[in-house]
Amino acid sequence: MLKLAKFMIRRRIRGGHHLIGLCDQLGMLDMYVQYQLGRGVNFSVPLFRPDTRWDQQDVENYEKRLIDLFCRLLEPLSDVVLFDCGADIGTFSALVCSKTSRVARVVALEPNPDVAILMKRNVSQLQVASEAITKAVSCFRGRGRLEVPDYDSSDHARFLVPGDGPLEVVTIDSLGVRGENVAIKVDVEGGELDVLKGAVETIRSARKCVVTVEAHPRVSKRTKRDPVECLRFLQSLRAFNFVIAETAEPALTSSPIIKGGQKAIYNIVGWTR
After folding, report:
1. Secondary structure letter of residue 240 according to DSSP
2. Is pTM, for the whole model, over 0.90?
3. Less crowded by CB within 10 Å, the N or C end of the chain?
4. Run of H or E residues at 120
C-alpha cells in the first residue's frame, strides 16, 4: 500500500497522500521495514514515524547529490573515520557506506532518545567498525536539552540548548581521533559552527578532511548566523575548497551563503587541499 501511495504521489495522481493517511489510521504503518542497500548494508526504517515514511526509492534518493559528491571526495582516501553528527536513524552513514569502501569506521552521534535504539541498530548493520553515541555534540562537554522551533515540530528540527538538561554533550575532539583521514557530516539545526569548534584538533591533525554542513534558511534566521561562518572557521584551521552540493557552484567565504528570499536548503561540502 505504501508503494502504491508513493507511485501515485510521484506520478502526480490524486489521492496518494490520502492513502498514506488512511494506512496510518488503520495501523498498517506500525512497523519497521528493512531495505537492502549496496555493499551489504541493511537499513531499517520506522514507517510509523511521519518523518521516515520511506520506500526503497526514498531511501536511495535521500540527499542524493550530497551523498554522491561526498563519496567522490572520499575516493582518493583510505581508512576514513566518518563522524555523523546529527545522525537521526543513521541514514547518512548507511548510504555513504553503501556507496564507498573508503570508510573504515563510523562514529554516529544523535541526542534524540526516541531514535536511539534504531540508530544503534542501523549503525551496527554497517560493514565497518562502528559506534553509536546517544549524546549531543558541540564545542563543550556538559549538559543540555533539545528544543523544538516554532516553524517545525518534527524530530529533525530539534536543536540543542546548553545548560541543565537530560542530555550529555561531548565534542568531536574528546573522542580522540588524531592523524587519520576524517570525514565530518554536521546537521545539528544551527549548532554546526559549535560542532566544528569542538573538532579543532581532529581537523588540524587529520591527513585529509572532508566536511559537510547544512545551510537552512529558517535555521539561519533563528540563529542569526549564516553558514559562511562555518566555512571561514574551517579556513582559519587549514586550506579548504568549498562547493554547494545541490548546485555544484563554489561556496565563497566572501559573502553569505543564504541569500535574500532563499527557501532552498543547501549542503556545503568542504575538503582540504
Report:
1. E
2. yes
3. C
4. helix 116-124
